[in-house]
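Reading a protein record of the kind used here takes only a little practice. Think of the row as the fold of the chain written in a discrete alphabet. With that in mind, consider the following protein and its fold in token form:
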Amino acid sequence: MLVQSSRFRFLFPPIQKRIPSSLSFSVASSAMDSASPSMLFLCGKSSTESEIAKSLKINDTLNLPNGGKVSALLQSEINTFRFGEDAFNVDLFLNSLSTKRFGRFLIWSPLLPSTHDIVSHNFCELPVGTVCVADTQFKGRGRSKNAWESPRGCLMFSFTLQMEDGKTVPLVQYVVSLAVTEAIKDVCDRNGFPFIDVRIKWPNDLYLNGLKVGGILCTSTYKSKKFNVSSGIGFNVGNEKPTTCLNTVLKELSTTPNEFRREDITAAFFNKFEMLYDIFINQGESIFWSSLQYPGM
């Protein structure tokens, strides 16, 4: 069943060409799962976040579950290493970000087991709104412990937020889903790209041309009368396998060699998410949906 409004298109089951959950979007290579520490570059939008980065590095605060080790470095140290041209551009992301809370403290890694593990395992050590981005994951996961394959070209990030009302916690994945579709629409509008029809299969799957291209995973724990929520997003931007991706569809629709950049989508996501989340929390669920002119079933 398809529901349309002037701004969004939502896809409900039944759906054709469904991709089994076990089909993953990470490179599952045992060679990548080594005992060497994962490199984490701690970056900030302002001097406030930069000071947090320095403190985390000095105190050697961050780690992985099951005793996994990380090597914390600062943004200024990125250029001392040689990464490929397709590595996440930290400066491009931060310069495109206009939020007051979300995404301002960035953890970037060229290779991680899972971005979700970083933010959820270190939640209390990180400022709320922290985002972790990885170029490649080798232990990405989806719902119900499904594997989530994460090759290069796939956008993978997880971020933190805190909520007080337990009734609204399960609904935050809807806000995340909407923010992703709005971010892609915004990038298209700003760059003059053709409209890319990304649809939501509620509550947390993203489809393009009938094929699954993304998913959202939200987990939470309860501590000190607050819910610590970790939200992870995986989206096929430049990786054609195992289904399709944004850039493949863009090439089919455009006469010019344009491409989506992961940094633009990530910044646009947080710019949109912060606005939508504030409406959702401060004005209530009903006001949130009515402000989007959502027509219902």
The chain has a mean pLDDT of 84. Residues 262-283 form the longest helix (22 residues). DSSP finds seven helices and eleven strands in the chain.
